[in-house]
């Protein structure tokens, strides 16, 4: 009888600096009935050797060496080799709590759940933030359709997910995941997690969500793309994801609800990747989503994450704003153009016209705004993002997306 209850799949590419910690955290699990499948996706560094060396020391480890094919192809290769009844995915530059597998499995068995979801930790530059789901509990099929799916991609607050996209804070049933994963095109290289999670959710009958944080997600400076060379390629890739989600969710969601959810999701991803300012080729104009700001405004940018970096990079090319200062509570050495990251205590109201908080998450925006107000920053200068649905739909159409969210590259 097969005693393997969980197959843990780790896609690996170019992360030799972090891989050891990831593998060690899995081998030290309190839960024993699992196999560890390390998928070397043609990694050009020492990762292949690290995988082989660990496999010699522990019989639970399987190693797959394959030509580079991207994240989805690595996850598919791992699933093909899996023999566990349940599947967990872990990214090779992250690590997990000692009770990660034990907790996920007990949640699944106790609730006969197709999907188990937990909280996680976000580690950035040595600082750790705890992130917990806002909707813990058990959901049967009726509640999944009425309470989870209708808010999964966009929960009504721009732009916050009702269900996190990540696959690594979840436990899947292998038999159900096999019906989903192989349908996801390998061409989807943006939002791979969302493609898996939301299409899997559409087939789930029982879901359990726990607040317990068990996974350590490492946010790395070198993993953030700082400039977009060709927006059309980005739009095309985003269109593949959005069209796939529409095709998989159109049988379980009302058309208006589904279109609204995907519209806001697409808009949020375009904003982050474009650095906020979006060029409308048809009209030869810029769409500026930051309310009240104008071309030439003296601006402070708060956040050195992906969105903040893209704002700085885009402005370096366009010169749309006069960026006076770049700040973050996670102060660290980072430079784009002439701007380096400064602590939030370094700004004064007299220096700038407006302050942009570079986040699409309303909860984060609210908490950061409160911190700034405590520091004496004029709240009237802290701007919001334009979230008017009619404006967003017009923008998306003008850029070149059709009603099925496919981008016309021509």
TrEMBL record:
Protein name (database record): Glycosyltransferase family 2 protein
Organism: Winogradskyella aquimaris
Domain of life: Bacteria
Keywords for the protein's UniProt record, in alphabetical order: Glycosyltransferase, Transferase
GO molecular function: glycosyltransferase activity
EC number: 2.4.-.-
Keyword Transferase: yes
Domain (Glycosyltransferase 2-like) ranges: 7-179
Pfam families with a match to the protein in the record: Glycos_transf_2
Keyword Transit peptide: no
